[in-house]
Amino acid sequence: MWAWLLLWLCCWLWPERLSGQGQELTPIYQIQGEGAATLLEGRVVDSVGVVTAVRATGFFLQDPTGDGRAETSDGIYVYTRQRPLVAVGDCVRVRRAEVDEFYDKTELVRPQAIEPFGGCAGHPTVLAMLPEGGGQMESYEGMRVGVAPFEGILHGPTRRYSGEEAEVAVVLAGRQPYVSGGRIFYDEPLEQAQLLYLNSAAGSALPDLRHGDRVRVAGGAAVVDYNFGKYQLLLLPGSPIERIASAAVQPSPAAPAAADHFTVCSYNMNGMGSGSDQYPEPARYQRELERRAETIAWWLGGCTVVGLQEAGTPRDAEQLAERLRADYGLAYTATALPGPQSASRSFPLTNALLTRTDRVQILAVETFQGCSERDYGVQEVGACPLGQYPLFDRPVLAVDLAVQGAWGEPFAISVWVNHWKSKSGDERVNLPRRVAQAQQVAGWAQHKLAAEAALVVLGDFNDFLDSSPVEALRAGTDPALLQLYAWLPVLERYSYIYNGASQTLDYLLVSRSLEKLVGEVQAVRVNADQPSPLQAETAGALHSSDHDPLLLRIWPQGVGWVAGDFGHADLRLSWEERGGRTVGEAVTDANGEVRFWNLPPGVYQARLQAPAHLVLSSTEIAFTVVSGENRIHGEVRHRTSLAGVELAVWGARLVAEHAAGQAANSEVEKR
Fold first, then answer.
1. In sequence order, which residues have a C-beta less than 8 Å from that of residue 668 and are 6 or more positions away?
2. Which of 118, 174, 372, 587 qualifies as a FRET site for 299, CA 20 to 30 Å off?
3. Strand partners, 605
4. pTM
C-alpha cells in the first residue's frame, strides 16, 4: 500500500516539477497586453529581459527587442520586497512569478528565482519621447524611454519619502500660461492632467524645490512607473534637474498680536511624537521639536492660542510648551487629554491646545467622543452605551478661555480642536465616518451657540472645502457657522498640496457672534509650498509639517476688512487714513483679487496705480470702513479694449457721415 501511495505522489508531483524547470517564456509585452490592465492576472509565468533600473524593493525589466507595437509596453516592474541582487544592464530570467495588478500597475510578484540569462541580444530600445501628461503613458508603463530637454514650473514641491526617494510635479513652461491663476487645484482635473511627475527612485538626485520654481531638465533617459494614481518619470543618472528661477512669492511671518487684539491658530504638526514610526531617536526628536517651536514662535508670531493636531501624546505637547518657554521666552502652557490613539506605540496622536498664560486663562476643559452604530475599531472602554461604538480616534478637545487685553473685561471664547478620519484606506467607509463626525460636532456646537458663546471650531478635517463633511458642520447649526475660507481670495484657499494639486484640509469656522470681530484670516505659507528638506537634521522650520498653519485675528472691540475684485492682476493699492498716513499696501493677484485686513472703522482713502496696459476710471477712492466685511469696486479697463471701442466709435461715425453725405448728394440730384 505504501509503495502504491509513493508511486502516486511521484507521478502527481513530477510533471509540476518538470514544468517548473521547463516553463515556457512569456514575453513582457504579452504580459502587459494592450489595455490598461493585464489579461494574465494571477497566472504564473517565466519571462526574460534586461534590467533598466533598480529600486529598494524591486527592479524594472524590459524585453531586449520588443514586439514593435506602440499599443503594448515592453517593460514591467518585478517586486522582490527587498533590494534585489541585480544591476542595470543584467540580462535575467524571472522564474515562476505571479502576474499581479497592484493598484492598476502590472507587476511580477513572488518570483521563485531570478537567474542570469544569456539570451538577451543587445539592449532595450530607448524611445524618444517628449514629456507629456500622465494620460499618454499607459503603453510605456515599466519601459525605459528617452526624455527630451525641457523647462517646467513646479506645482508639487520636492516631496521626500522613506529612503532617498523624492518627487516633484511640474507643468511644461509653455503650458503654464494656460493654468488659471497660475495654481492647480484639486477640483481642476483638466489642469491636473498637464502635470508631469519626476521621481528620483532610479538614481537621479532631485534638489529642494518649492512651488513656483522654474526648472530645467537636461534630458536623457527615464523609466515610466505608475504609482498612487499617476504616471511618473523615474529619471536615470545623467538626467539632471536644476532650478533656473526661484518662485516670485516668498513666505513671510505673521505679525505678533498687540494688546488690542489676539490671535487663534490651527497647526497640524505631522506626527510630532516619539512613537516607533515617528521620531524615536532622542536627538532627532529634539530637533523636530525645535522646528515646531520655531514655527509657532516666529512664523505664527507667538500666536495667543494654538490648536494642535498630531501631537504624539499629551506629554509631547507639554514638551513643546517647555521648549517655547525656554528658547523663546514665550509663556505657553499645554492642555491635552489622552484619547484612543494617544496609546499607540507606533504612531500616537493627540489633539492639544497651547495658550499664552500672560494673556489667557483656562476656564474649562473636556473632550467629546461621539458614538456610532458602526464599529470603526476605536478602543475606548465605557465611552458608548451597549450596541454603539466610539467614533473618534482623536476626540474633540473643547476648551473655554478668557483672554485679556486692552479692551477691558476678559473676552470669553471657546476653542475646539478637531482631527477627523483621514482619507487613507477605503473612502467608502471613511467618508460616511467623517460626515458622522461632522454631525456630532455640529450638534455639540448648537448647544454652545444656544448660550450665545463665541466659538472657534478648528483643525484638520481631512476633506475638501466643498465636501459633505465640511458642509455638514458649517450648515449643521442655526445660525450656520462662518466658513472663513470664503473670506480669502480664491488662490489662497488651500493648506496642503497632494500630487501637485492644492487643496484644503485644515479649517477655521467661527460663530456668527465673531463676524464683526475677526480682522484677518491667513494661511501661513511655511509648509505646503515648501520642499521636504534633504537634511532634516540641519533644516529650519520650513516644511516641518506638510500642512500650512492657519491664523485669525480677533479684535473684541470690532474691526473691518476690505475685499476687492478688480479683474486684473498687478494693480497696486495703498490704503491711507485721513491725514495721509499709509496703513497698508497690496497688489491684486493673478485673478485680480486683493484684501486689506485689520482696519479699524473709519474713513479711508484708497489710491490705485495700474500697470501701463491698464486704465483706471479713478486713481483715488474715498471709502468708509465699518466693522466686518467691506467691498471696494473700481472700473479698470485694458488699453487694447479701449482702443477697440474708440475704433468702433470712429468707424460708426465714418459710416454715419458717409450715409449723411450720400443723402445730401441724393437731395442735390433731385433738385
1. none
2. 587
3. 576, 622
4. 0.89
What is the C-alpha separation between 61 and 56, in angstroms, rounded? 15
> Does the residue 252 lie in any domain?
no
Beta bridge partners of 197: 169, 232
Please give, one letter per residue, the 3-state secondary structure of 332-347. EEEEECCCHHHHCCCC
CA 193 → CA 132, 149, 353, 556, distances in Å?
9, 20, 40, 46
| 290 and 416 inside one domain | yes
Helix (H, G, I), strand (E, B) or coil at 603: strand
User: Could you tell me the CATH number of the domain that includes residue 163?
Assistant: 2.40.50.140
Return the bridge partners of 54, or none.
59
Task: Categorize the per-residue pLDDT at 120 as very low, low, confident or very high, splitting at 50, 70 and 90.
Answer: confident
Query: DSSP state, 254?
Result: P
- Kindly state whether residues 403 and 488 are assigned to the same domain: yes
Percentage of the residues of the chain whose pLDDT score is greater than 90 = 77
Q: Quick one: pLDDT band at residue 9, thresholds 50, 70, 90?
A: very low
Same domain for 29 and 148, yes or no, is no
The pLDDT score that the predictor gives to residue 238 is: 85
Per-residue confidence (pLDDT) for residue 240, from 0 to 100: 86
Say how many C-beta atoms besides its own lie within 10 A of residue 217's C-beta. 23
User: CB-based contacts of 467: which residues, under 8 Å, 6+ apart?
Assistant: 434
Residue 5 lies in a domain: no
Which of 504, 528, 557 finishes a domain? Answer: 557
Q: Can you read off the three cell numbers belonging to residue 229?
A: 494614481
458602526: which residue's cell? 374
DSSP per position, 302-371: S-SEEEEEEESSHHHHHHHHHHHHHHH---EEEEE---GGGG-SSS--EEEEEEETTTEEEEEEEEE--E
Is the distance from CB of 136 to CB of 174 less than 8 angstroms?
no
Confidence of residue 657 (pLDDT cuts 50, 70, 90): low
Residues 412 and 426 in one domain: yes
∠ Cα 145 146 150 (to 5°): 130
Q: List, for residues 171-192, the tens digit of each pLDDT value.
A: 999 999 999 999 999 999 999 9
Q: Residue 621 maps to which CATH number?
A: 2.60.40.10
The secondary structure of residue 494, as a DSSP letter, is: -
Residue-wise pLDDT tens digits, 528-556 = 999 998 776 667 899 999 999 999 999 99
Whole-number Å distance between alpha carbons of 275 and 271: 9
| pLDDT per position as a tens digit, 352-388 | 999 999 999 999 999 999 999 999 999 999 999 999 9
Pairing of strands 262-272, 305-311: parallel
The mean-pLDDT minimum among 18-32, 225-239, 474-488, 607-621 falls in 18-32
Same domain, 407 and 445: yes
List 334's β-bridge partners, or say none.
354
Residue owning grid cell 540569462: 117
Nearest to residue 215, comparing CAs of 186, 240, 249? 240
Q: How far apart are CA 572 and CA 610, in angstroms?
A: 6
Same domain as 354, residue 270: yes
- Residue 367 lies in domain: 262-557
Instruction: Decide which of 559 and 132 is more confident.
Output: 559
218/301 same-domain check: no
DSSP structural state of residue 660: H
d(CA 564, CA 633): 6
